Amino acid sequence: MTASISSENIFKMCPCAGDKTYGESPLELINYYESLPKNRYGDLLRIMAIPYLYHATEAINDSATDAIEAYSKAVTDLLSYVKTTDVSGLKSILELAQGSDEFEQLEEQVETHTGQHYGNLFKGFSDHSYFNEAKELLKTRLERNGIEIENLKNKTVLDQGCGGGRYTVAWSLLGAKECTGVDLSDIGLEDATKRVEAAKIKNVSFVKSTVLNLPFEDDTFDIVYSNGVLHHTTDWKLGIAEQIRVLKPGGFGWQYLIENPGGIQWDSIEILRVITRNVNKNFARTVMKLLGIPANRIFFMLDHVMVPINDRLTPMEIENELILNGAKNIKRLERGADFDGIEKIYNKIPFAEQKFGVGENRFIFTK
Q1: Which of 103, 163, 166, 259: disulfide with 134, CB 3.0–4.6 Å?
Q2: Assign residue 180 a region: left if phi > 0, alpha if psi is -120 to 50, beta otherwise?
Q3: Residue with the larger pLDDT of the pair 225 and 5
Q4: Which domain holds residue 86?
């Protein structure tokens, strides 16, 4: 059996199971998964809940129906599905995944554990996803918000928590003078270094370090970019303080932290975090690959579901912390890429707040 979890901890990890936003369906779903055995068959069913709920949520987000009602039904449908699934028919997947669920040696230290998780996800990216996709996403988010960085060709960039280095490289491809990525993941940094060397990109380098104690002097970089990182650390406030410390006076800062409220998108992730909290990560990646899910989609789905810490914050919490550490000209971005919740809110799609809450907390500022 899986390690038991109290109702109090369920509600802490997954508030929507306690506040009855979707009725009783989330708690009923979680309790059923808790009753499943802790073995390869039970974990296979837990993993299959991930693409099921992601696809259901995306379908709701693309529809004009009431999101709360539709999501409650999706959770109920998943419960019916898992109760009637004949796992013996999935034996071939288990056979192909043989060995991937053996003892998983993960560091107890949260930062190292997190780095290993993301390093294993990033290294599966195709060259297109690694180089072209990140560049276009960054370019789109800058352009749609009217952000022009003067004389970028003479700017130095720090990517604070670079993971596999995609956005470190993206800044280089957009024309920055020198780009440095910092992360604690050996796996991610090794993969990033190999890709950059193979592509003969000369102005990108990587440094192994915690993002909470950056190995740079004060006022070092023209741009410090932190994109969806600090909410996975033990102290996001310290991360912001470090970001601003190493930013030059007048420099450009970018900070993205997960939003609260986040609508059905983040409620779904929190349900899945409870369900899969004891599932072997290697096994999850292997099963999803065997299900035919592309590497960038696997990353998207497992990103927040299986990381140890996943703090969600209100816009005011983040803005207050930026101000406290000396940030100026703070602006919360109103637009994003096509799939970003904030872009859907901007375009006033039906039931946008139910679906995406306040949208992504992307802030820019100067020092």
Answers
A1: 166
A2: beta
A3: 225
A4: 7-96+264-305
